[in-house]
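Checked the freezer inventory, then went back to the computational side. Two predictions to log before the end of the day. The first one is the construct we discussed on Monday; recording sequence and tokens without edits.
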Amino acid sequence: MRRITYFGETDKGLVRSNNEDIFLIKPELDFCLVADGMGGAAAGEVASAIFAESALKIFSNLKQRSNEDLNLLVQETFQTANSEILRDIKQNPNHSGMGCTAELLAFHDKGFVAGHMGDSRIYRFRNGALIQLTKDHSFVQKQLDQGLITAAEARTHPRRNMILRAVGIDKHPALDILKGELQPGDLFLLCSDGLSDMAEDTLIKNCLAGPETIIKKVISLIDLAKTAGGRDNITVVLAGVT
């Protein structure tokens, strides 16, 4: 019988005056999430909170945990949060422009289902190898896919924070759904771009490969981002399979 161990932390970083990120871990419901609010003065933290509240409400009604059940719940979470954010904007015009990127990871007995929208990320560390499971919905990623820029250029591109998809921006945004099987020792990382923009994958992999507990690994990852400048809010969640 597989067991999932979770830990998460968020930090406003060294530059921002507030934190628009949020994370939620619900071991009893076997899911976790990270949301990164966007909009600044337009209340990005409200958007990310709406996403977390939507997930909690929908997963609290979970009766069964098959692959198909989780697939539907993940989709419903993103759809509901998207509608709720748009409704909030209609009621509060000063919130116009807010939204959030979001990662939602849910487990069943044999595997996982994840939802992804934006440039926050989900990684999996398995047998010494770190794989980015998600692909950024960003202008820079599109440029990379078209071969117009290199990976090194992407890290310092002036438009690297331009997002092409997010929760609460369009009425019917496209959602990436990821599915896979679990192996003992798998370690899943959910993070906002406050980590991935600051720390290269090699540094992240080295941290995850160490013998420390997941609590210490989360703290070390946040420290990595802050040591590199901490220009954005930093949120990290780890989910380990045993």
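The second is the one RB wanted added to the comparison set:
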Amino acid sequence: MKLVNFKPILIIPGETRSIFFEIFFKSIRSKKFTSPLILICNKEILRKEVKKYKFYKKIELINLNQIFKKKIKKKNIYFIEIKNSNSKNYVHECFKVAFYIIKRGLTNKLINGPINKSKTLKRKYPGMTEYISKNFNQKKFAMLIYNNKLSVSPVTTHLPLKMVTKKITKKLIAEKITIINTFYSQKLGFKPKIGVVGLNPHCETLSKFNEDTKIILPAINSLKKKNIQVSGPHPSDTIFLKSNRKKFNVIVGMYHDQVLTPMKTLFEYDAINITIGLPFLRVTPDHGPNEMMVGKNRSNPISLIKAISFLDKR
């Protein structure tokens, strides 16, 4: 019988204006979780959201000193207060506290709610994956959009399309796929079948240099020698057909939208974003702040439910 680790799950709601609390309260109401949950947020924002959505389950205030001394109880919800939610550094302060707790060894589980990258990261990082990895001096990592039926991973993440060809290399492709294979083997208990998508339409090009044959194929061949179950390059316009995608656990693409667009078309909100390769498990719902839906109480909580459930079992 598998032993479940009931270390607390740290939860950063993210932007002060987003759908996070709506979907968080819906998640807690719809499913029972065993792991303690620790919100890291502003007290006044939390109070207003609790009142707005009529959430009556107890949320206990705990300070940063207490958290290492006090017994954190299963199934309870706690929160650590972050002052001054109007500060431009508010989201960074939330992450700073979470990183401190993780580095002290209290837990290895983190969920963050939707982040407005242009507002919070100010173009210093391509995305939150890179921001978090940098704070742990982790140079080798990968973005995995996970569903137990099929997952995808882009070799390059939040890059403009014109920069992709300059970034993809044999080394980078092999590195990302190795991280994916290790994650599945160590965390999920099996070796995945991985399909790799070519860069060019039909894996063909009119130019003299074909990335599919000169970069992607040699990377795949080198991984096969290491007993990794990988194949490709496969044309991106057909790999997601039902008869093709069922052959794989993970499909790896060369750029963000090449694999995230079909993934979201297939599963919509039923997927989570996992940063793999970190010394802890970082998961986030696979959607943004969705400011247009704030206050309407119509947002789908399934991705957050999946995120909490994933960490609750580990």
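For RB: The chain has two domains: 1-138+278-314, 144-268. The mean pLDDT is 92. Let me know if you want it refolded.
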